[in-house]
Each structure stands twice: as structure tokens, then as C-alpha cells.
Amino acid sequence: MKKIYIAVILALICFMSSFAQEKQLVTGKVVTGDNKPVAGVMVKSLTNPLLSVMTGDDGLFTFGVSDHEALELTLNNTDKMVVVPDQQEITIVINPQTKMIDYGFGIRRSQRESTASVSSVDFNTLDQSGAINPANALYGRLLGLSVIQNGGSPWAGGSPSFYIRGRGTYQTSAPAVMIDGVVRPLVALSIEEIESVSVLKDAATLALYGQFGANGVLNITTKRGKFNVPGEVKASYQYGPAFPVKLPKMVDGVGYAGAINEAMRNDGLPDVKYSEWDIKDIEEGNYPYLLPNVDWFKEALRSHGYRQMAAVSFRGGSSNMAYFANLNYSNEQGLFKPVDQNDGYDNQLKRNMLSVSTNFDVKISKSTDLFLNMYANIAEFQRAGVDHGTLFSYLYRLPPTAFPVRTEDGAWGGNPLYTDDAGRSINPVAQIANRGFGKNHQRRLGIDGTIKQDLSSLLKGLSADVRVGIDNYAEFLDTKFIPNFPYTVSSFVRDPQTNLIPDDNITYSILGSEAYMSLGRTFNGQSRHGFIHGKVNYEKAWSRNVISGSVGFAQEKTVGNGQYNTLLQQGMMGQAHYVYRQKYIADLAMSYSGTNYLEKNNRFHFYPAVSAAWIMSDEDFLKDHATVDFLKLRGSFGYSGNGNIEQNLFVQGFTSGGQYFFMNANTGSAGRMEGRMATTDLSPELSRTVNFGGEYSLWNKLSGSIDFFHSHRTKILADGANTASDVLGITAPYICTGIVNSHGFEAGINWMDKRGDFTYLLGGQFSYVRTKIVNMEEAYKQYEYMRNTGKRVGELFGLETLGYFRDTEDIDTSLPQSWGALRPGDVKYKDQNSDNIIDANDVVALASPSGYPGMYFSLAISLDWKGLGFNALFQGAADYGVNLNTSGTYRGLIDNYTISQFMYDNSWSSERNTSNRYPRLTSQTNPNNNRNNDVWIVDNSFVKLRSLEVYYLLPQKLLSRISLDSAKLSLKCSDVFSIDKLDISDPEFIGANYPLLSTCILGLTFTF
Q1: Separation between Cα atoms, residue 557 and residue 183, nearest integer Å
Q2: What is the pLDDT of residue 604?
Q3: Sequential DSSP letters for 898-938
Q4: 177 within 8 A of 160, measured Cβ to Cβ
Q5: CB 62 within 8 A of CB 34
Q6: Of the four listed, 44, 116, 407, 851, which is most buried by Cβ atoms within 10 Å?
Q7: pLDDT tens column, 971-1008
Q8: Global confidence as pTM
């Protein structure tokens, strides 16, 4: 028995000895790239997650580890990295590869270990723009994302269009916008709430999104609190003017009279509209109420509007709770001028928005965490009694001589030639000042919570989380509307002897009528969005291997107004991540998802993807290389879908139509008839994507990435009418046979360096994408060059021009053209098919795609010296076309429109010495000149100075005296200038609507 005890004791000693040999104490130091210690970093063992320590103020920690045991470091509650100590003293450098990438669904990977093509930007960069709408801070910031500004909305610059890697379909191509993993509108956020924005663009991540991933995903992560960090309060205020960009200069009264007279002579009309006496009186202002000379833009608009923003946020946390709360208010006032002519109200364009958001992270126990998010958003939009788009259409239409703003007795001016559908004068000043006002109210409210449970007691590395939430949106409109107002029309006859206008020869008539203000309230819409997400996670490390994965389930329901406006989504997803020796990485992603927009027996579809990465810089032949800091190659292949289709396409449609007649009076009553036939093979678009790329960092200064990609999109909805005979008798169904291919590459590069107190950064991005329509069930066209098939998505078609007809002899000796009688100065077209006649068979592809560019690029410059800094972003687009078809600006005089000075100066003329850049002036509808052709369809390439910031950080010596941690004075300007080929229009908006705005905002931000 004694021998047995001795044996057991010896065995225990040997065991303890071996254990002591297996465990060794590692001392680590966590530092930034410039060798500053990082405090508050949580270090835990992946083998036993219950073992953890935290770095102190000196960035140091000690930890007992086994051979090849992996340690996970967590920074700022979000950013993570995994290290395997290979010696007793290690230094861990926090670098850009440490930053976490949010794939969505609670899946996060460090930049170092990501196998996906993802580009990201953080709050500090976005804040340089001074934009109210965060969407307007994204121009040129994210590789692979094209952001194109839209005009026509006065509110926060409108909402720009997003394209991720161009347009991979000729149907809906907008990417999904996710905020903290939930589909929510970006405009409801303030920039202060955003931690980072990422673009997910290859199959490695998009496969997880199933039927809503093929167009790419814009993934926004909001700020959260920080554990064990004292509370921080940050406050800011910004204010400044907003100026209209490139409003066209219209001709004055004399110019209009000369233009319309010339147009009538060009048309061969026997008389002109304005006599030489009329022109003289307009020029001298002799009869301002009969022959006025009104600058309508000047009368209706002021030179600038205003914007202001105020925000305060609170951030911090204890050992068991972290919090972030933000209160944001923004206000802007528009460009309308006559808004102070009514007692009790004004009708200026105004926008007020108040948003509140809170995020809480709570450690309920050692194994249970709670994440709670809440937000509320209240917005009020005030406008005049007439929509701003309608008002601007009047400004682009009215000649300066049409009528005076007010007549001599103070009444509103008007002319029966210029009235709206209700017979009211389209006098824009009267329409702004005298039609009442409306207020649009929007309310958004959302709350969601996530519980994450560590299940290591069942299986080490096992955890689960469940997320439940609801969003609610409602909108209604209050109007105080004046339906009509009187206006005075003046006419006159000149004395034939003196050519003067005696008072007796002037007549006045009053049209319209006085009307009382009517009150109205309209419910504009609502939506409810509820969701539940749940997943099980597993993570394990052994030897030099690390594996993690998740399997999840999601169900969402969105209910809108009216019938057939409910979207149900359901699906499962899975993702596995494997790392060997911290340099060989493989991922598997998949989803199985469906929606009620598809037929029951074809509702769910499977989307898999595989990806891998190799960190070459960790290999022996590069590990100690003085030049290479980081080098990674990666690739991915997989599938994703696009289920953004119309609801109930798989059901036979019925519409109103036809007449049934009853009784002796033979009274007719509308009936029902068959509409579009049901689509029998309805399915979401299927995108097969391959991506190869890499990331690099050299000399601790130069960094960047490059990607090459190809996408094959099938099952795109096509119009079946082109495949069926009209004998069918009813509308043919859509069929899922469309095919589009796209390919391209992206490259980003940054150079950052510090010389003493001077720091500078130069960064560039370039994206190129080319699309090709392989099949769209296009109707038969006689010649291949006329087909959209084989061309790019959105390519513009028209006639190729050969100049203008010089004279009647030139017309007589040229090929006949099919659109009316020709006159000198009309457009001459090229015969494409050599049939000796110019007709619709001569239409060819003329320009690059419209709406999105084939090339998108940017250059960022940042300089800082002792707190005095400068940031500038140049952004441009090329391989980008536009159709100059705006009435008034480019196609004036027809239908009694005015004309821009630019068009007048550059139109063909036998009388004036001009550039002959555009066709002759005409007062008549001209089907020959105003066809789509390469006069109007032009290259729309541009380069803009998108944002410019100058700032000063107040010195710490001064701040310490007033108990502030930091303070920043800044001047932020947007859309400062544009270099383009459009002389009188902004390249991103040429329409007759509210203009784009350039802002210059002065701001103060401080923390304490």
C-alpha cells in the first residue's frame, strides 16, 4: 500500500512538473503604430475564455500560456486580434489590420484575417465633410462604391444614388443599406452616431445576405460605449450658408426678344414677335408694366440659404456597463425670397430634424451580456403651397418679358399663355408668396435588444445570441392651402404715328379669383418592421489552429400601406472561419433564404461561397524584410441573389377595363379584364461572383489594396412581350431569362508620414467597371448596332451628327431625313446602314452609360502641423454620359419658353458670329433637331472638390485652464468647384428643379 502511495505522489509530482513546463509566463506590451502604450485592452485565452487580464496604463500584461496557445485581444469593445506568443516577451502593435470588419449578423473579422473584399471608413474621415445627411459624406471614401448626387430636393442635399461595382442588372440595382445589421434609412442618422461604414462587395460576405446581397451591401455600424472608461461629453455646433450651384443665366428682355425674333425668321414665319420699338422700350425700361424685363430667378430666389447643426453625446462605462447616447438637431432654410409677405406665417423651405439614440452594453453576469439599442427621429419639412419642383419648372419656363411681377396698381402679373392646369398665373413670386404652405411630419422610432449567452459550461467556445426588434415609421402632411388668386393681364396697341403707347391704348383684365385658405391633413404613409435574429457561435483554438463559426436564423416582416405591401423574409445562414499559423485563412459562407414575393414552391434558394487568404508577409522569406510590413493575397467565389422584384408577379393580374351596358338606358359600367399573365418560373436574380485581390503595407508609410472581379448575373426579369406574338391578345408575362456580365478592378493607395510636428496623408482610389447585356429578350431590330443586347447597361442611343445644313443647296444635295421639312441650321445625320435615307434605323450607341460612371476616382489630402490642419477630397467620374434635354436651359423658345444666354450665344445662326455648337433657334416643335443625338448626348465626366476642411485644435495648456479635454475650430466646405464639360449645368444634375447646394460651415467641437 505504501508503494502505491509513493507511486501516486511521484505521478502527481511528474504531472505538476510537466504542467509547469507546459505553462510559461508571457509578458506582453500593447502599443500603437507610433509606440504609444494602449490601456484597457482585454486579453483572454481562446482555450479557456474565463481566463482574462487587462492591460494597464503602460500597455503591459502578463499571462500564463501553453505552447502555441492563442490569445484574443479586444480593443474598444469591438476591435479584436488573435496572437500566438512565440517567446516570453512580446510586443503587439495595433495597426490598421487590427480594425474589425463587420460582416453583419454579429459576425466580425479583423482586417488582417478577413478573406473578403471590404472597404471601410470611420467617423473621423466622414466628419470632414460637414454634411447633414451622412450619405453626402461618402463621396470618394469607399473603394467600390459610386455615389452620385441627385438634385431636386432641398433637404440636406437630397439622398444620392449608390452603386456598388456599377450596375450588374438592368433592373433594380440599389444596394442594401444596413444599420447595425438592420435595414434602416441612412438619412435618419447623424454623422455623430456613426462609428464606421463598410462596403461589402464580394461573395465572401454577400452570400450571407441571400436574396438581398447581389447588389452589394452598405453596412453602417453605430458608436457604442466603452467599458472601464470615464464618461466623456462631446458637444458641437455648426452654422453656415448654402449657395446654389450653377443656376443657369437666362437671357434678359432684349436678348429674349432678339432670340424669339431670330427663331421665327429661321422658321420662315412672315412676322416677328417684337418690333424694334418694343426692343428699344424693353432696353430703356420705358414701359415696365407692359414690356417688362424681369429676372425671375433674382425675384424668386435669394442668394443663399442656411444650415445649422448642434449635437451632444455621452460616452463611457464602468466594469459592468458601457453606454453611448447622442442628441442631434439640424435645421436648414431654403432659397425662396418672397416669404415675408403674409401675417402669421412664412412659406420658406425649412427642414428641422431632432434625433435621439442610445446604445447600452450590460454585463448581466460573467456569462451573459445584454446589448440594447434605441433611437427616435422627428423631422418636419415646410414648403410653400406649391411643390418646389413645380416652382422651378416655372422659373425655367418664363421669359423676362412675359409679364411683370406686379402690375402698376400692385396686383399680381400674369398672362393667359403662362398658366397652370387650373388656369392660375405661373408667376413664381405669386405662387411662393400667395398659395399658403404645407408641413410634412415624419416620425421614426426603433428599439432592439440582443442577449448573448456564453455556453462554455456545456462546451468550451460555445455561445448563443438572440436579437429582437421593431421599427415604426409614420408620415403625414398638414396644409394651409390657397387654391386661387387673382392676377392682372395687360395688353396694348402702339400709336402708328408716334410708335408710343398712349394710356388709352392700354387694356387690363383681371383673371382668377380671391380664395380663402383651406386646411387639410393627409396621411402620407406608415410602415412597421419587426425582426428576430438568432444564432449559435463556436470558437476553438488548439496548437496553431483557430476555428470559429456561426449558424443563424432570421425572420423579418415589413408592413406598409395598402394592399400587397407586406414583405416577409425568412432564412438561415452559416459561416465558418479557419486560421492556421495565423497566416493561412479559409472561410465558408452560405444562406438559405426566401420571401413571400416568390411562389411557395420556389420561394427559398441556397447561396454558398468560399474564400481564402494567405498572409505572405508572415512567411520566412518576407517576415524580417525591411520594406514589407504586411502583404496578403485573397480570393473568393460564390453566389448571391437579388429579390427586389414586384410582388405577386406569379399571380394572374386583373385590371379595370371594358364596358358592360345595362337596362333600357344602355348605361355603361366599367368591368374587369385580364392584365399581365402570371410568371411561371419566377425566381430572384442569381449572381455568380469571383474576386481576387490583396492588401499591402510598406515602409510603415505606404498601404493599399487592389481587387479584380467578375460577375455573371442570370434570371433577370425580362419583358416576355418581345418573345410572344400579338395574337396572344393579353399582356405577356415577365420571364426570368435576362443575363448581364460585369467585370472590373479597384485600387486604393495611401501614403502617410510624419516629419517632426508635421503629419501628412495622400490617398487615392480608382474603380473601373464594365457591364455587358448578354440577354434581355429584346425586340427584333434590323441591325445589330441598334440593339441594347451586347452593350453596357444604361448605354445612351441616338443619331450620329455630321454638323448642320449650311443652306438650301446643302439640304437639296444631302440624303433625305425623315422628320419634317428641313431648313438651314438643322442637324444633319449620318447614314449608318447605307440605305440612302436617314430614319430610325440609323440610331446607334452614342455615349457611356447614363446614371452611373464606368470609372470613379478620388484623391484625399490631409495635412497637420501642431494642431493646424487641412483636409481636402477631390472626387471624379468618367465613362459617364448625359442627355441635355432640359427645356429652357438647352432647348428653349419652343412652347413660349425662355432660353439660357449660353444657348443663345452658341446656337447656329446666319446672322450672328457664334460657335455653331447647337442647332438653329426655332419657335416651333422640331422633331429633327430635338431627337436624341450626339449634340445633346455628351460626355459627363467631371472632377469636383467635394469637401474642404480647415481646422485648429486648441493647445492643451489653454484647455486645461477651462477644464476641457479637447476643442476644435473648423471651417468645412462642400462642392467647392467642378471641372467638367457642361458650361451651365452641374454634371450630376441638369434638370429644371431645385439646384444642388454648395455649403460653407463654421463649427466648434469640444469634449470634457
Answers
A1: 11
A2: 94
A3: --BHHHHHHB--SSS-----B----SS--TTTTSSBTTTEE
A4: no
A5: no
A6: 116
A7: 999 999 999 998 899 999 888 889 999 999 999 999 99
A8: 0.88
